[in-house]
Write a structure and sequence with these properties.
CATH class of chain B: Alpha Beta
Helix content of chain B: 40-55%
Number of helices of chain A: 30
CATH topology of chain B: Rossmann fold
Order of helices and strands of chain B: EHEHEHEHEH
CATH architecture of chain B: 3-Layer(aba) Sandwich
Number of domains of chain B: 1
Shape of chain A: elongated
Oligomer: heterodimer
CATH topology of the largest domain in chain A: Heat Shock Protein 90
Number of strands of chain B: 5
Radius of gyration of chain B: 13 Å
Strand content of chain B: 15-25%
Number of helices of chain B: 5
Largest interface: A-B, 33 and 32 residues
Helix content of chain A: 55-70%
CATH superfamily of the largest domain in chain A: Histidine kinase-like ATPase, C-terminal domain
Shape of chain B: globular
CATH architecture of the largest domain in chain A: 2-Layer Sandwich
Distance between the termini of chain B: 16 Å
Chain lengths: 923, 120
């Protein structure tokens, strides 16, 4: 109830209250009035009746005195005039009727004399009064007059008056209601108005509004309070607003500053990269040349360290650049066709050497179809995989590193690949895995000290992967190894490698058997066979192979050489006794030297040898070769351009080199000479380029540094392109700027191609060969080829044998004696062996030189090195060391190597002389 | 029973040095062989106490051969001989099962000490 009232509106509350009060007061007063009126009326009637009784008693007394009942009845009959009197009687001693009057009397009526005589007057249905009539003479005899009067009129009166009162009451209440309805407005209107204003304020947030006051009552005070509050809020609001505006301005300024700073940073990085790369070019290039000269072992070590450090520094620089590129969102992905298996083969080449050096296993195997091309950024994918593999190798010293490419999903044209790099290295604690991918973070700072690296590799890897919409997963167990997986989707190109496709098509349905005791290797071979659509079974125990081949007929057998119980060669011997397998192609695989296997397996038929680890492409070649002997494919092999060829190619070409840095000038000149250029013109700045090019009789190609004083390479190129004869002249930019956009800048200026400093010799050679393959000469004026360049043959450097050797530097007997613990006898014996071997070495050298068999030359050098060292022939020892190293080098300087061999041969007499001396001492 | 030494080295010098060193000793017998592939059949037939193995030989190199040696001839102690100063290679050789590593050129005393250590 209370609740209902509380929730009523003020209007209803007030009206209800007013009406309640009014109604109750009215009811009360009306009731009182009614009561009074009715009581009055009642007593009036009573009084009148009593008076009537008195009068009638006096009148009747005479008749009573005379016992004249008839008169008495007549007198009573006079009461007829009073319509309300219903009955009048005179009783004798309250028992029998003396005289009576009954209005409208009927004969059947009996008169009831049961009266209560104690009261003089009472109401029992009707008013009843008693009047004693006393006879004058007889005191004992008593007569009583009874008059009965009905109450009809009283009842009617009461009914009437109540009816009237109610009507009046309702009229009054109606008026009260109307008044109440009006009255409440004085209180509720201002409150409702205030409420309206409040709603408006809260809706429009306009705190500057003011509410108009209507009176000075409490509501007026409320309005005042409200206005004050509104004012205060308004002030606070305004203050806040001004603060917000001020802050926003400050933030804007800060944001602009940050943007400028970021721009400055990337510009700084670009510049820094240029500034650092220029000297780095010098260090790496000159270091390479230094390494090619004759060095003492100590110098060699120092030079090697310089080279390695410079390369590391370059790697760090590249990493930092990559990170900053990605930070400013400048890293753009290519979208080109590439063959995944070629990319993987490249990685195999790259890391095999490292795996060999560290003595750990390294395998790559992929489930991706060999003939399919993917669309994506092969360079960045390569970078991701190199980073992951590089890390795996860095932290693995025993066991293996595997790269597996698994096809996770192959829907429509989308190929979801998982590249899993697994190693058995030091592993990572679970708690540290999360922080691995943060910049400059390795699993532990001590890791950086132990294993080197910038800690940027994984950051870059992750960001690159994310750039390709891929994810990286890491699982690792400390001490057990790690597994990094990059999951990246590629679009499949519609292009197919038809050469590979044809081959696989012809191989389809063949069955192969792999016999290898190493389950991992066997699995890899199996995968590789499966990639060629060849079904392959695996046997781990060679002794079971014979049983196996009797069940199933295989088209090709792949057998490992060294296995426990029975090695591959014995197995093949046994297999080939079986009639069914007499002509089945057999591949013998080995992790050891192939020549060795070949020697061992001379007397059995082996169709091909395979060196482990094998690349998928090689595997395909070998298997097709063996299985499809009769099918001829015309393959074009794209071999590395070899220097011999390029030498002849570049002899007559005219090259203009623009470079301002002195060291880089020297470096590039030396490189070009090494490549076989005879006509090199050098320009030191853009202006110089223009001058020189106008006066050159012929120019075939220009190497242009971009940043040069006076006139930049870009401007020079633009100027050259203005000359009609040079529209198609190849101009190759050399720039140390590695930020993206540089390439575009170069091409926009009109350059043909682009090489980044430090200049990679092989890369430059590739570019030069590409653009100089066609014999087109350009010159500023009219074509004039009359001045054919004369061949300028390189002067053969004077052999160093002519230097007179200091005796001690040539031969030191104390060294020899030290090794044989002062046994002259043994030294003598050994020196004689060396003498006998010497001529043999000379013969071998000459033979190898004739065949240009540099590997043999290196091996001979190796043998001579250890023998001469033990005997104390110091000069020869050094020379042999040089020969061994040069013969193994990636790019071989034939002339230099041959002149070293000549030097060795020229030492013959001196050596024999010294051995003679030892002989004498020994005796 | 004399201790049996097998020298696997393509370098005649080394073979001569080792043979010479133990020439007149009753407690040692020395067999020498030129290549790892030839050694395969020998170690399969005969057990040697000590194998002196050259690290770099044409064909199968000594470094590759260690694990094979260990598999076939379990009792043999393998001493690597190599001209390579790289510590990493030495460590790897020891991990693969070599018991010692002698750097070329070595003195006779160095050789003898290494052999004595291996026998102990």
């Amino acid at each position: 109830m209370k609740r209902i009232i509380v929730n009523l509106s003020i209007e209803k509350k007030m009206v209800t209250m007013i009406m309640l009060v009014t109604t109750s007061i009215m009811l009360l007063s009306t009731g009182l009035v009614l009561y009074t009126v009715i009581t009055e009326r009642h007593s009036d009637i009573q009084k009148n009746l009593i008076a009537l009784g008195n009068i009638m008693g006096e009148n009747i007394k005479t008749s009573v005195n005379f016992d004249d009942d008839l008169t008495a009845a007549d007198i009573l009959e006079t009461l007829e005039l009073n319509k309300n009197i219903t009955k009048a009687m005179v009783l004798n001693n309250k028992q029998d009727i003396f005289a009576k009057y009954v209005r409208n009397e009927k004969k059947s009526d009996t008169i009831n004399l049961q009266y209560d005589f104690k009261n003089k007057c009472y109401i029992k249905d009707d008013f009843i009064i008693f009047q004693k009539i006393i006879k004058d003479d007889e005191i004992n005899e008593e007569k009583i007059l009874i008059i009965e009067r009905n109450t009809e009129d009283l009842k009617q009166f009461i009914q009437q008056i109540i009816k009237n009162s109610l009507m009046l009451l309702s009229l009054l209440l109606g008026i009260a209601f109307i008044i109440a309805k009006r009255l409440h407005l004085y209180i509720s209107t201002p409150i409702l108005n205030l409420l309206k204003t409040m709603k408006k304020v809260s809706k429009t947030n306009n705190y500057s509004l003011e509410h108009k006051k209507e009176g000075n009552d409490e509501i007026g005070e409320l309005v005042d309070g409200f206005n004050i509050m509104l004012n205060k809020v308004n002030n606070v609001n305004k203050e806040l607003e001004s603060k917000v505006i001020a802050r926003t301005k400050a933030y804007q300024i800060a944001a602009e500053d940050a943007l400028a700073a970021s721009k400055a940073k990337s510009e700084f990085l670009a510049n820094m990269s240029h500034e650092i790369r220029t000297p780095m070019n010098g260090i790496i290039g000159m270091g390479n040349f230094l390494l090619k000269t004759q060095l003492t072992p100590k110098q060699q070590r120092y030079a090697d360290s310089i080279d390695e450090s410079a390369r590391t520094l370059l790697q760090i620089l590249n990493d930092i650049l990559d990170v900053s590129k990605m930070e400013v969102g400048k890293m753009e992905l290519e979208h080109t066709e590439f063959k995944l298996c070629d990319l993987l083969d490249g990685l195999q080449d790259m890391f095999s050497l490292k795996a060999n050096d560290k003595g750990i296993g390294f395998e790559i195997y992929s489930e991706v179809e060999l003939d399919s091309y993917l669309l994506g950024d092969p360079l960045r994918l390569r970078q991701i995989l190199i980073n992951l593999l590089g890390n795996a190798f860095k932290f693995t010293s025993k066991g293996f590193v595997h790269l597996r490419v698994v096809v996770k999903e192959d829907i429509d044209n989308n190929l979801k690949l998982k590249f899993i790099v697994k190693d058995t290295g030091i592993g990572i604690a679970p708690s540290k895995i999360q922080s691995l991918f943060e910049s400059f973070s390795q699993a532990d700072y001590s890791t950086t000290r132990n294993y080197g690296g910038t800690g940027l590799g994984l950051t870059i890897t992750l960001q690159l992967t994310e750039l390709m919409n891929g994810v990286i997963e890491v699982t690792s167990e400390e001490g057990e190894g790690s597994e990094f997986a990059a999951i990246i989707s590629f679009e499949k190109s519609t292009k197919k490698d038809t050469r590979v496709m044809n081959r696989i098509q012809s191989l389809k349905g063949k069955k192969a058997l792999v016999v290898d005791d190493n389950s991992t290797n066997a699995e890899i071979f199996q995968t590789m066979f499966n990639n060629l659509k060849i079904d392959a079974d695996v046997i781990l125990d060679s002794t079971q192979a014979i049983e196996q081949i009797s069940f199933t007929k295989y088209d090709i057998l792949l057998i490992d050489w060294i296995m426990p119980n029975m090695n591959g060669i014995s197995l093949i011997k046994k297999l080939q006794k079986d009639e069914n397998y007499k002509n089945t192609p057999i591949i013998l695989a080995t992790a050891f030297d192939i020549d060795e296997v070949k020697k061992e397996s001379k007397d059995i038929r082996v169709d091909a040898f395979m060196e482990k680890p094998i690349k998928q492409s090689m595997f395909l070649e070998t298997v097709t070769e063996v299985l499809l002997k009769d099918v001829k494919y015309t393959d074009v092999k794209t071999d590395k351009i070899n220097i011999k060829l390029s030498n002849a190619m570049f002899h007559e070409k005219h090259i203009l080199v623009a470079e301002d840095n002195r060291i880089n000038q020297e470096l590039i000149m030396e490189l070009l000479e090494e490549f076989g250029f005879n006509h090199i013109t050098l320009a030191i700045n853009g202006e110089d380029v223009i001058n020189k090019i106008e006066n050159m009789p012929r120019v075939d190609i220009v190497l242009m540094d971009c940043q040069m004083p006076k006139m930049s390479g870009y401007d020079a190129t633009r100027a050259i392109r203005q000359m009609p004869n040079f529209l198609k002249l190849p101009i190759i930019a050399m720039t140390a700027n590695a930020m993206s956009g540089d390439r575009e800048k170069c091409l926009a200026a009109g350059m043909t191609d682009y090489a980044t400093k430090p200049i990679e010799p092989d890369f430059l050679l590739g570019l030069l060969s590409k653009y100089l393959a066609f014999n087109i000469g350009y010159n500023a004026g009219q074509a004039d080829y009359s001045t054919t360049p004369k061949l300028k043959l390189k002067e053969v450097k004077k052999s160093e044998t002519e230097k007179k050797n200091d005796d001690k530097e040539f031969f030191d007997i104390t060294v020899g004696l030290k090794y044989v613990s002062d046994s002259y006898r043994l030294l003598n014996k050994l020196s004689l062996t060396f003498k006998n071997q010497f001529d043999e070495y000379v013969t071998q050298f000459n033979e190898a030189r004739r065949q240009e068999d540099f590997v043999s030359i290196s091996e001979i050098g190796h043998s001579i090195k250890s023998a001469s060292g033990t005997l104390g022939f110091i000069a020869i020892n050094k020379l042999a060391f040089e020969i061994e190293k040069k013969g193994k080098a990636d790019s071989i300087n034939k002339e230099e190597l041959f002149s070293l061999i000549d030097t060795f041969i020229n030492y013959r007499e001196q050596v024999f002389e010294k051995i003679e001396e030892i002989n004498k001492l020994g005796k | 029973m004399p201790k049996k030494i097998l020298v696997i080295d393509d370098d005649e010098f080394i073979r001569i040095m080792v043979e010479d060193c133990y020439e007149n000793r009753d407690d040692f017998s020395v067999t020498t062989i030129k290549s790892a592939s030839q050694a395969m059949s020998i170690i399969a037939k005969e057990a040697f106490d000590i194998i002196l193995l050259d690290g770099f030989m044409p064909g199968i190199t000594g470094f590759k051969f260690i694990s094979y040696c260990k598999k076939i001839s379990k009792v043999s102690k393998i001493i690597m001989i190599s001209g390579n100063e790289d510590l990493k290679i030495a460590i790897q050789a020891i991990r693969d099962g070599a018991c010692d590593y002698v750097l070329k050129p070595f003195t006779i005393n160095e050789l003898k000490e290494a052999v004595d250590r291996a026998i102990k």
